[in-house]
Design brief:
The chain is an alpha+beta fold. Helices cover 40% and strands 19% of the residues. The termini are far apart.
Length: 578
């Protein structure tokens, strides 16, 4: 796709929005969600968001789809080819399943949406082919997709933060005051340092959320990839306010090679009102769909998940999975210029016309999986048994408190070197008590984020949760309600991120005139699913004080703290809970 063709696509999109056709039961869209361990496809009705068919395909390589290095716990990569293999598998399976539904035909899929984890950048050649797909680079971990949870660039992140604070404070003001090792420039710079051959071979780099739509559209040059403001603004320090990406002088102060790369990246990033392209003939044939089908701009999974959860001003959406991401939208001027420790406040990153605010926790579901499967040697039945035993325990009965930093802290400390902590262990402590303490620890981490956002002007009157854990773990959800003191709604879709992508596709196709109209028709939420309980909330408030004392004590440059009373306070809470 040439730049001229891109421009034509944008103009065509404008015409579609002005002449939006009414949705009918015969209009469907396809959402494709690239998660941490698998890809999933969801086909929905544009008229009411009814889910017609879904399919999931795990990534075939590595450990549950992730390439790891036993010598470096910070490393997490994925094979780019796995995304394409799993996408073709889950989409064709979903289309085949939908074919059994009355009124459905593949030709009636009028739009495609794509979401993915991030920041998950991929080094590509001049033809937009991922280096990791090529025989020469297949076994080189640096040539693969640098998955969101890769923290190998933690030193680079610290150096970027230091340089930006000294030379370009506006850069880190847009990312909560600290640049993260989970983000774009940290990973690219680390690749340059540890694998200069791969860095030199890369014509450019493309976010996974942008790369897949570009392949579907047949884009054959990274210069022609339509980049979304979601990934660009939150992870790559992109803003029209300073002319796009960080300037060459700043990048040169980090490394001249980064400054040279800048001209091979991109100068424009767009919101959900612009298409990523139209489905090309190659992938139309492989997926069994109609060529020319509009493709929505790619966004991060949780951002589209927020769309599916009917995000609006005053709503905080929590997508709870292997990690957790919190999303909100606010009007310009309604929040402080800098919210310390968040993942950025970016115009148009979630909904066009609104500032998207992002925060999150680097590990949630991963923590429970580690405890149940790695430490306890269990499986899904063990999860259920421990949850049942933990549910029988009153708050505070174990005398435990856990810090939820098993994969570092994303918000509000932004420190990948922090680790998980469990305080209060005795010879009587049980597996179920630890399981509950780990859940409570993630709930306390969620409360820290909520308090930080409120302190800086982000209104939170309603919380909507989504993801497999929100759907399947009522113990966790009730603990979250009790700890935060908030009423929790829950997405009615088990595939909220894919549903959000499908909603974006409906806008791209012109079936709905804009995102509010599409959300009104297609978003689905179960209201007041979990209510905070006063007695439990009071106990958790006391435990949270000890959690926060530990939390602040481990913060870099945080206040010195006397931790000598923490264990004794936990024992007092334990006695009072019995």
């Amino acid at each position: 796709m040439t730049v001229k063709q891109q421009a034509a696509g944008v103009m065509n999109q404008d015409r579609i929005e002005r002449s939006s056709r009414a949705p009918t039961p015969m209009n469907f869209t396809l959402g494709i969600d690239f998660g941490t361990n698998s890809a999933r496809a969801l086909i929905v009705s544009c008229a009411d968001g009814r889910e017609v068919a879904t399919a999931v395909a795990p990534y075939p390589s590595g450990r549950e789809g992730i390439l790891l290095d036993p010598k470096n716990r910070h490393l997490a990569r994925q094979r780019p080819g796995d995304y394409l293999t799993s996408m073709q598998a889950c989409v064709t399976q979903a289309v085949a399943a939908a074919a059994r539904v009355k009124g459905f035909q593949p030709s009636r899929i009028v739009g495609i949406g794509v979401d993915a984890t991030g920041s998950s950048p991929i080094p590509v050649d001049a033809r937009n082919h991922a280096l990791g797909q090529q025989a020469r680079w297949r076994n080189d971990l640096s040539a693969q997709c640098w998955l969101w949870k890769d923290h190998t660039g933690w030193q680079e992140a610290a150096a970027i933060t230091e340089a930006a604070r000294a030379r370009r404070p506006e850069y880190v003001a847009a990312t909560g005051g600290t640049y993260s090792s989970e983000w774009w420039w940290s990973k690219l710079w680390h690749c340059l340092k540890v694998s200069p051959r791969v860095f030199a071979a890369a014509e450019s780099w493309v976010e996974l959320a942008d790369w897949v739509p570009s392949l579907l559209a047949g884009v054959t040059s990274p210069r022609d990839v339509v980049r979304g403001i979601c990934a660009a603004g939150h992870k790559a320090i992109f803003s029209d306010a300073w002319g796009g990406l960080p300037d060459e002088e700043f990048l040169r102060s980090l490394d001249p090679a980064l400054a040279s790369l800048r001209s091979r990246l991109y100068t424009r990033a767009v919101d959900g009102n612009t298409r990523a392209g139209e489905l090309g003939p190659e992938w139309a044939q492989r997926l069994g769909l109609a060529p020319g089908t509009p493709i929505a701009i790619g966004q991060f999974d949780v951002h589209y998940g927020a769309v599916a959860c009917d995000v609006r001003e005053g709503t905080l959406v929590k997508v709870i999975g292997t990690s957790t991401c919190d999303c909100a939208v606010v009007k310009s001027g309604s929040i402080t210029p800098l919210i310390p420790g968040i993942c950025g406040a970016v115009p148009g990153s979630i909904l066009p016309g609104w500032i998207g605010v992002e925060a999150g926790q680097s590990a949630v579901g991963d923590i429970f999986k580690w405890w149940v499967e790695e430490i306890c040697g269990g499986n899904a039945d063990t999860h259920a048994a421990l949850a049942q035993q933990a549910a029988a325990q009153p708050p505070g009965a174990s005398g435990l408190v856990a810090l939820d930093w098993h994969n570092g802290n994303r918000t509000i400390l932004v420190d990948p070197l922090l680790t998980g902590t469990l305080v209060g262990l005795t010879l009587s402590t049980t597996r179920a008590e630890i399981y509950r303490a780990l859940i409570e620890g993630t709930a306390f981490g969620a409360r820290v984020i909520i308090e930080r956002l409120r302190e800086h002007g982000v209104a939170i009157r309603r919380i909507v949760c989504a993801g497999g854990i929100a759907e399947k773990n009522p113990l966790l959800m009730q603990i979250y309600a009790d700890v935060t003191g908030c009423m929790l709604d829950v997405s009615a879709s088990g595939q909220a991120c894919a549903l959000g992508s499908a909603i974006g596709a409906a806008v791209a196709a012109g079936v709905h005139k804009d995102f509010p109209a599409a959300q009104k028709a297609m978003a689905r939420v179960r209201r007041n699913a979990y209510r905070p309980r006063p007695r439990q909330r009071k106990i958790y408030h006391a435990i949270y004080a000890e959690y926060r004392r530990l939390h602040d004590a481990f913060a870099a440059n945080g206040p010195s703290a006397d931790l000598s009373a923490v264990m004794k306070h936990l024992l007092e809470i334990q006695r009072s809970s019995q």
